[in-house]
Design brief:
The structure is a single chain. With 273 residues, this protein is α+β, with helices and mostly antiparallel strands. It has a domain of 157 residues: Alpha-Beta Complex (Lambda Exonuclease, Chain A), CATH 3.90.320. 40% of the residues lie in helices and 17% in strands. The chain is built from 8 helices and 8 strands, in the order ααααββββββααββαα. The strands form 2 sheets. A 5-stranded mixed β-sheet has the order 1-5-6-7-8, sandwiched between helices. Strands 2-3-4 form a 3-stranded antiparallel β-sheet, covered by helices on one side. Strand 3 and strand 4 form a beta hairpin. It is globular, with a radius of gyration of 22 Å. Bound molecules: iron/sulfur cluster (SF4). Iron/sulfur cluster (SF4) binds next to helix 3 and helix 8.
């Protein structure tokens, strides 16, 4: 270890020791959040609603099974956990309980009643960790090798109209600006509509600062669903033919777990990297 490295190490340790007790308390919790016990199951190589429309090269790396070097940040972990807790609240404490009331205007639609249930090539999966109203499926109908793997927050019916339900939590600044669902969320909803056969999705946004909410019902056109199919088929083709897709430089690159190999124009990591 060089003298400079050693000096930096000592300085860092001293800085840690000088932290006030209260800061050490949150630092200990944050350390737990970014290093949780046990790693989850490895991701299935499949198209995901939250990413299939993003950079094609990024999806190419994911589908090839390249390990993403995404760093965990304490605040992101907290945001994720709060979002999950609020989802559980609206699903189990509100919609599921409400739907049980005989005079409720909103009811759950069982997965067996969804238009694509029982069709060849799509499997609805009952076992999952999410609240029971969550609809989970694996759809192999549109691609050759990589299926669509997705979970939507629920399927509901009200006043003889069936629709999917997608809950989103959002910060106050973004909530104020919201006049329609975010573009990314509309693309995410399109894959749910394509697979389930339910054309409408109710996006319900809850502001995490004020607890106000805004609902938007989107009904998807054939063109929008065709766009999804073209998108996943084109992306899959790059993987099947092992052709590195072009870069799509954007703000996302800063957070991309594949940036290292992408910058080097590599199809996969170098053997000893
Ligand atoms: S670094 Fe940017 S261009 Fe490269 S794979 Fe990631 S998102 Fe795509």
């Amino acid at each position: 270890m060089s003298l400079k490295t050693l000096a930096n190490k000592v300085k860092k340790e001293q800085k840690e020791m000088d932290k006030p007790f209260a800061e050490k308390f949150t630092a200990a919790i944050d350390n737990f959040l970014v290093n949780p016990p046990g790693e989850g199951r490895p991701n299935r190589l499949a198209f995901r609603p939250s990413s299939y429309y993003k950079c094609v090269r990024q999806t190419y790396y994911f589908l090839k099974g390249v390990t993403s070097k995404n760093k965990r940040f304490p605040r992101s972990q907290r945001i994720l956990a709060v979002g999950t807790a609020l989802h559980e609240w609206v699903q189990t404490e509100v919609l599921m309980k409400m739907a049980e009331m005989p005079d409720s205007p909103i009811k759950l639609v069982p997965k067996e009643e969804l238009p694509s249930f029982g069709k060849g090539g799509i499997e609805f999966i009952a076992e999952h960790q999410a609240p029971p109203m969550e609809v989970k499926f694996l759809d192999t109908r549109f691609t050759k090798k990589f299926p669509i793997s997705a979970m939507v927050d629920g399927s509901l019916t009200m006043m003889n109209k069936d629709f999917l339900f997608e809950f989103k939590t959002i910060n106050p600044t973004d909530f104020e600006m919201l006049i329609e669902p975010l573009t990314d969320h509309i693309k995410q909803g399109a894959i749910y509509a394509l697979s389930t056969g339910v054309r409408s999705v109710m996006f319900l946004y809850l502001c995490k600062g004020t607890q106000e909410w805004k609902p938007y019902l989107i009904t998807y056109t054939d063109e929008q669903l065709d766009w999804v199919v073209t998108r996943i088929q084109t992306t899959e083709q790059f993987v099947l033919e092992d052709i590195l897709p072009p870069k799509e430089i954007s703000n996302q690159c800063k957070w991309c777990g594949y940036k290292n190999i992408c910058d080097k124009e590599l199809k996969e990591p170098e053997k000893n990297s």
